[in-house]
Amino acid sequence: MWRRNRFLSSGVLAVGFWLLLADVASAYVGPGAGFAVGTTVVVFFVAFLSAVFSLIFWPFRWAIRAIRGRRAFARARIKRCVILGLDGLEPSLVEKYMAAGELPNLSRLAKRGCYRKLGTTAPPLSPVAWSTFLTGCNPGKHRIFDFLTRDKRTYMPSLSSVQIRGPRRVLKLGKYRIPLGAADVRLLRRGEPFWKTLGDHGIFSNVIRVPITFPPEPLHGVLLSAMCVPDLRGSQGTFSHYTTRGEGVVDDGSPYGGTIGGERTTVAVEKGVVRSELVGPEGGVREGAGVLKCPFEVTLNGDGGRVKVCGETYELTVGEYTPWVRVRFRAGLGVTVHGICQFLLIGTEPEFDLYVTPIQIDPDKPALPISHPPVFSSYLSKKNGLYATLGLAEDTWGLNAHVLDDEAFLHQCNEADAERERMFFDALEKVRRGMVACVFDGPDRIQHMFWRYIDENHPARDLYQGRLCTDAIGQMYRRMDDLVGRTMKECDDDDTVLMVISDHGFSPFRRGIDLNAWLEKNGYLVLKDGVRGDRYLRGVDWSKTRAFCLGLAGLWLNVKGREAEGIVDPSEAGDLRDEICGKLTGLVDEEKGEPAISRAFNTRRIYSGPYTDDAPDIVVGYHRGYRVSWEAAIGQTTDNVFHDNTRAWSGDHCIDPKLVPGVMFCNRQIETDQPRLMDIGATVLEMFGVGVPKRMDGRAMRVADAGVGDSTETAEQKVA
Questions:
Q1: Residue 38 pLDDT
Q2: Helix (H, G, I), strand (E, B) or coil at 394
Q3: How many Cα atoms within 13 Å fall on the side-chain side of residue 491?
Q4: How far is it, in rounded angstroms, from Cα 474 to Cα 707?
Q5: In this model, does residue 697 exceed pLDDT 80?
Q6: What pLDDT is recorded for position 166?
Q7: Is the pLDDT of residue 320 over 80?
Q8: Is residue 291 pLDDT above 60, yes or no?
Q9: Which residues have CB under 8 Å from 618's CB, separation 6+?
Q10: What average pLDDT does the segment 599-614 reach?
C-alpha cells in the first residue's frame, strides 16, 4: 500500500511550503475571467493552521480508517482492483486487430477472463460517460450532459463541469487590489465518486487523470485531476504561434468559441534574433494591470537556435520540442504566477515559425488545486519529472488550424501517455491493497485526428500536408496492447482484479449537421433580419424562436420562465419535444442518399433524478459518419443543413450510443450479458465487500472468483 510515512512527509512539506515561499499565491484562473492573486496575512495564517491541525489529527484519522479498512477487507473478495481506462477504444477495431494477431496481450486477457462490449451513455461524450463511470449514476443525477451548457440568462455557452470565480472580497490600497480569501473553484458535477465510498470504509484509492475530477475532491487516497483543468489564461488550451507571416486569432472552428484555439503573433528576425513575449493570465495586484507577459528571445543558428526565457537557455531544433520549460509571470507585490510550456521550432526559412504549447499550471507551484492532497502533484513531478497538467493536453486545435503537422501532434499524444505511464506504474508499485484507476487519453485524441487515414471516403483525407502519420491509429492500438501486457505483469496474482475499459467507441465524422439551420427551415428558430453567421446565437430573434442548438449534445427549448426570453409555455414543452424528436429521427441527408440521424431522445424520458431539468431538452443520436456541425455547436446558423467536415478532427463518437459501445476486458470471468459503464463502480464496491449505495443506478456485475471458469477458448473465438 502507499507507504504511510509518505503522508507524514507530505504534511511536513505542505507546512514548509507555506513557511518558506514568500511569493505563494492563492490564485484564480477562470475561462475568460482573468487571474487574481492574494498573499494576505489572513490567507497565510489560515493555510498554516490548516496544515498544522491536519498534522495533529492525522494519526487519529489514520487509526479510524485503518480499523474500517480491516473490517472492509474482512468482507472483501479481493485485495486490489486496477482499472485501466483507454478512452475511446473502439470495439470493431479491437476485434479486427485481435483477429489479425496484433493485440496479443488483450487476446490473452480475454482468454484468461473475458471480453465484452460495454454500454455507454446518451450522449456518448467523454465528460458524460466518465461522470457516469465514477458516480454510477445516469446524467440526471450527476448533472453533466455535454462539455458545454447554456446560460439561461444570456444564452451564452459555458463549461458544464466547473465554475471558477475570484475571491468575493478585495482590499483596495491605492493602486493595489488585494483579494481577501481564496478563489471559489466549484465542481458542478454532482454525485459521489465510488472511491469516496471506498474511502469511507477505509479502502485507499489512487486516481490518476480520470476526467471530470477538477477541482479535486477529498478522498482517502490521492488524486490527480484531468479534463477541464484550465491553462494559466483560464482557457481550455490557448496555444501561441509566433511567425513572420501575419497575426490574429487562429480560427480553428472549435465548439468552445474562442476559449480553445490559438493566437498568432507577428515577429521580426533582426540580425538572427527574434524577441517577443509569452502571454499569461489577465490582471495582477495592480489595478488595470492588463495581461501579464513574460519576455523571451530566440537566437537563430542555421536550422536551429536557442530560446532564452526567465534566465534559462534551451536548444531549439526544427521539428523537435524542448523539454518542459518553467516560466514566471510577475503580478506585483512580490507575487509570481508559475507555469510550464514547451517550444517547437517549426521552421526558420523562408519564414520563421515558432509554436508554444498552452502555458499550463506548474505542478510544483500550482496556481489552482489540481490534486488531492495538494502536494501530490508536486510528488509526481519530483518522482517522474514535469508533466502536462492541462485537462485537454493534446493540442487538437493546433492541428486543425494547420499550425502543427501530424507528427508534431502525435508527439504530444505519445508524450502525454508516457508521462501518465510513469505515474500509473508508480501507483501499481505503491498500492498493494486498495484501488488504482488511471485513464489514458491517447486513443481518443489520436482517433479524433487521424480517422481520415482509415476512412477512404473522408473529405479531409488529402487536405493536410507535412509529416503525415497514416498508421497512427494502428500504432496506437499496438502501443495500448503493450501497456496492457506490462500492466498484467504487475497484476499477476489471485487477489488483484484488472479491468481494461473504454468509455465509448469511435466513428467517422464526414458530415456535420447544422441543427440551427434545420430548426430555421422548419420554423422553430427565427433570425433577425439580415443577421446570419453570428456565434453564440447573437442573431436569433428570441421573441419568435422556440428551439435552438448549442453544444455537441442536442437542442434546447426556449421555455417561458426558464430562459430569459422564453416563449414556449411549460405546459406545451413536452409535446414540442416529442414533435421535434419525431421529425429528427430518421432524418436523411438527401445529397448523399443516406440516413443522418438514427434517433432523437426526449431527455425527460431517458434521464431521472434531481438535475433532469438541467439537461438539453433533446439529445440527438446521429448515424455513423455524422455529428453536429462545427457551426451549430457554437450557436451559429448557416445556409445549409449539411456540411462536409474538412478538418483534421475526422473521427467522433457523439452519435447514437448503441452504435459506439465501449469495451471491457477483465482477468476474471464476468457473467453479466450486457455490462454498462455505470455498473463498474458498483462492481468494485461489491468486490471489496462494501454495500452499493441506493443512489447508484449501476448494479454490481457477477464476477467469478480467481481461477473459476478460465476458458480454453481462443480470444478470437470469444470475440466471435
A1: 32
A2: coil
A3: 31
A4: 33
A5: yes
A6: 72
A7: yes
A8: yes
A9: 554, 555, 577, 580, 581, 584, 600, 601, 602, 603
A10: 97
Mean pLDDT confidence for 389-416: 95
Q: Where are the alpha helices (DSSP H) in 262-405?
A: 375-384, 396-400
- Is pLDDT of 170 > 80? no
- The identity of residue 382, as a single letter, is K
- Distance CA(355)–CA(243), nearest Å, equals 9
Please state, in angstroms and rounded to a whole number, the distance separating the CA atoms of residues 207 and 215: 13
Task: Output the CA–CA distances (angstroms, integers) from residue 420 to 133, 383, 440, in the order listed.
Answer: 20, 12, 7
Burial code (b: 16+ CB inside 10 Å, e: under 16) for 404-422 equals: bbbebbbbbbbbbbebbbe
Give the start-end residues of each E strand in 210-334: 221-224, 237-243, 248-250, 260-266, 273-282, 291-301, 304-309, 312-317, 325-332
**In which residue are the cell numbers 465554475 written?**
163
Q: Tell me the C-alpha to C-alpha distance, in Å, between residue 588 and each of 617, 622, 626.
A: 22, 11, 11
Instruction: At 385, list the grid cell.
Output: 519529472
Cα–Cα nearest to 202, from 11, 63, 58, 7: 63
Please return the burial class of 707, using the count of CB atoms within 10 Å of its CB with bins 0-12, 13-18 and 19+: exposed
Rounded Cα gap, residues 237 and 240, in angstroms: 10
Measure the CA–CA gap between 211 and 231, rounded to whole angstroms. 16
Provide the Cα torsion 249, 255, 259, 262; round to 10°. Answer: -30
* pLDDT for position 714: 41
- Average per-residue pLDDT in the chain? 87
Cell readout for 321 is 520540442
Provide the pLDDT for residue 74: 85
What CA–CA distance (Å, rounded) separates 126 from 396? 15
When pLDDT is averaged across residues 278-292 and rounded to a whole number, the result is: 79
Residue 720 has pLDDT above 90, yes or no: no
Helices marked H in 76-125: 91-99, 104-112
d(CA 298, CA 274): 5
Query: Rounded distance, CA 130 to CA 212, Å?
Result: 7
In the block, cell 506504474 appears at 425
Within 8 A by CB and 6+ apart from 470, the residues are 453
Q: Which of 34-43, 348-357, 571-580 has the lowest mean pLDDT?
A: 34-43
d(CA 519, CA 19): 59
